[in-house]
Design brief:
The complex is a heterotrimer of chains A (about 130), B (about 325) and C (about 220). With about 325 residues, chain B is of the alpha+beta class. Chain B is built from five helices and 22 strands. Chain C has four helices and 13 strands. The chains are: A mainly beta (about 130), B alpha+beta (about 325), C alpha+beta (about 220).
Chain lengths: ~130, ~325, ~220
């Protein structure tokens, strides 16, 4: 983790102004977790081979884009690596939930429209071969 | 750098409009949907008022000549980057050699008619009289003072970079406004309101208004009941603004839009509040809506709500971008 | 009679001076505009024909206070003679550049020479700019050559078109639609966005038309 302290301070300020209680940011080899009253940085685990996609943060779990009526990836559909298969709505922002590998979307685990937290299991993926 | 592939006469470079040039006879121009333009810019970390391309005739396509972060907002045009489908109100990376294609606006929970293509750092065209908006009548501003043509090359203010795509919830969903089953647009009475008949007042607020095909960036001609003054009205030329609802002699109102001239002489029955002008700016030709009478306090609250929505989006997008940069 | 103050949505406020349109009233409007431009809630004060539009920098919560200040400033405003330049404009009357000359002579009952004489006689004060970049609203036209606006507007008249609409005359600064009757043309350039100021004319200037040629 190489995030300079000054950036954490800036992120913390914005977080405070945003009215959110917590924020999770992640990228390859890095995971930043901030709460309103304290900022801590913890290293992220290496990506696992599990086929359960968990929530990358706190927000409203959506399986369809708010403008659309059909799901981004219906149950049973084949999804490609990096394909957006669900969304996490944080107020006005929409964050993508992407497929970690080419696979079949076997089941939607979380309730669409509900608020989920970091790590909440969202979607179950099966290998295409199965 | 992007190259326009479509010969779309009507796509233009716009920002939030030109202020301070009215005394030279120069109207404001600017985006028909300023919220969509600002939102696209905020997704990219641009200033809210950076210049973007307003697209209103489809299909529309551009070729990417150099890597650049982009955002697409406004009407959902089932856009594709090469073969990859893009979500509406979304940002991402455009790579050199790729082609971005927008189709006709699709039916969604929010019918809209104009799309905005924002690039990181804004579309790099010179500022003219304080704005990068295209002034079509004056033939200056924007790209060479005219609508975009096939082969035009436009540079991003901040080429390169690397972003993970994320998006925004369209403000029409966050701030819906309807009256009796139709989209509503809030209006304050204007100078000549009291000089119309009571029946005209009742019709103005009570009936649905249809946007006729004779509607463009200059103005929307509406079809509905005829509005009649108590006595003929003759006015001296005076300043007008986008959103003013004029009633020419025929009795069918015209709403002046972003390319409106800065002065006029027709009677004015009302003016759409600035905070709602984007709603009409996106309303498709042929669609119907209602005028909703409002008061000063509500109008300012609507402005504050728009500003708060944009500020919130900007903060969250900054957080997101900073987190991605740190990672 | 008191001036009219009305809203243009949340974008601007319109101030309309009472009485007939004349130059002394316009000079008071210029004075009022100069004063109002210094107010913090005003982005631009834009004179029209004996009226003024105040564009808000940011729409104020307390509108009444601004209205009261506006009325007070009008009561205190004295005519401001701007003392501009006199600019002479060579015009080719009639012919290809004046396609509606026959309509104007027909309506007024004047011969083309009399009409040109009446149109070139006055010094026209520039009251305000508006309509399109560089366009001027002029005062001072002889009412004998007044001609109603056309029933069907012309889709595009070229820049430099000299025309009459009702009791007003003007010169278009760029090509565009117009409901006025075009009686001549000039080659003068009224607007250049790369110059400062971009408009050739400003309120207080005086315009004089000179008949360079009359095509009969």
């Amino acid at each position: 983790m190489t995030l300079p302290p000054v950036d954490i301070a800036r992120i913390s300020e914005w977080l405070a102004a945003s009215g959110l209680t917590a924020l999770e940011l992640r990228g390859p080899g890095c995971h930043l977790r901030l709460r309103q009253d304290r900022g801590t940085v913890t290293p992220m685990e290496a990506p696992s081979a599990r086929q359960v996609v968990t929530s990358p943060g706190i927000g409203r779990f959506l399986t369809t884009h708010p403008l659309h009526s059909t799901p981004l990836a219906p149950e049973g559909s084949v999804v490609a690596l990096g394909q957006i298969i669900a969304l996490l709505q944080i107020d006005a922002l929409l964050m993508p939930v992407t497929a970690p590998a080419g696979s079949v979307l076997a089941a939607v685990l979380a309730e669409p429209g509900e608020i989920v937290g970091y790590g909440t299991p969202l979607l179950e993926l099966h290998p295409i071969a199965e | 750098m992007i190259e326009i592939l479509s010969d779309t006469a009507l796509a233009t470079v716009q920002d939030l409009g030109r202020t301070g040039a009215l005394n030279w006879g120069v109207g404001t121009s600017g985006a028909m949907d300023p919220l969509a333009l600002a939102a696209g810019n905020l997704l990219l970390g641009n200033a809210a008022g950076d210049a973007a391309i307003e697209i209103q005739v489809f299909p529309f396509a551009v070729r990417v000549h150099a890597d650049c972060a982009f955002a697409l907002t406004g009407a959902d045009c089932a856009a594709r980057m090469d073969e990859q489908t893009l979500l509406p109100w979304w940002s991402g990376m455009a790579r050199a050699g790729q082609t971005l294609r927008l189709g006709l606006p699709v039916a969604t929970a929010w019918p809209a008619s104009r799309a905005y293509l924002c690039l990181a750092g804004g579309i790099d065209v010179p500022e003219m009289l304080g704005s990068r908006s295209t002034q079509l009548r004056g033939a200056f501003g924007g790209y060479a003072g005219r609508a975009l043509r096939q082969g035009d090359l436009l540079r991003a203010g901040r080429p390169g970079g690397d972003v993970n795509g994320f998006g925004a919830v369209p403000p029409a969903l966050a701030m819906p406004l309807q009256q009796d089953g139709l989209p509503a647009i809030r209006v304050l009475r204007a100078a000549e309101y009291d000089r119309y008949t009571p029946a005209s007042h009742a019709a103005f607020w009570g009936e649905a208004w249809r946007i006729t095909p004779q509607s463009d960036r200059y103005g929307y001609r509406l079809a509905g009941p005829s509005l009649t003054p108590i006595a003929p009205i003759e006015l001296r030329s005076h300043g007008i603004v986008p959103g003013v609802i004029q009633v020419p002699h025929g009795g069918q109102p015209i709403v002046q839009m972003r390319d409106a001239q800065p002065s006029g002489g027709y009677p004015k029955i009302g003016t759409i509040i600035e905070a709602d002008l984007w709603r009409l700016g996106q309303a498709p030709i042929g669609s119907r809506f209602r005028f909703l009478e409002t008061d000063w306090a509500t109008a300012l609250a609507a402005r504050d709500a728009n500003e708060a929505w944009l500020a919130g989006l900007g903060r969250l997008a900054n957080l997101q971008r900073l987190g991605a940069a740190a990672a | 009679m008191s001036p009219g103050v009305s809203l243009l949505g949340t974008t601007a406020l319109l101030f309309d001076a009472p009485g007939a349109t004349d130059l002394p009233t316009q000079q008071r409007i210029w004075s009022l505009a100069r004063e109002a431009e210094t107010w913090p809630e005003v982005r631009e004060a834009v004179p029209g024909m004996n009226n003024m539009m105040l564009v808000f920098a940011r729409a104020p919560r307390n509108l009444d206070a601004l209205e009261i200040r506006l009325h007070e400033a009008w009561a205190a405003a004295t005519p401001l003679p701007l003392g501009g330049r006199l600019i002479e404009l060579p015009v080719v009357y009639g012919g290809e550049g004046g396609p509606h000359m026959a309509d104007v002579t027909g309506h007024t009952g004047l011969g083309i020479d009399d009409l040109v004489a009446l149109h070139t006689a006055p010094d026209y004060p520039v009251f305000a700019l508006g309509s399109h970049p560089g366009y001027c609203y002029l005062g001072g036209m002889d009412p004998r050559i007044a001609t109603p606006r056309r029933k069907i507007p012309v889709l595009s008249i070229p820049g430099g078109a000299v025309s009459i609409g009702g009791t007003q005359t003007g010169v278009s600064a760029s090509a565009g639609p117009s409901g006025w009757n075009t009686i001549g043309s000039t080659a003068m350039c009224f607007f250049d966005p790369t110059q400062h100021p971009p408009a050739l004319l400003r309120p207080g200037d005086t315009l004089r038309f000179r008949a360079e040629r009359v095509v009969r």
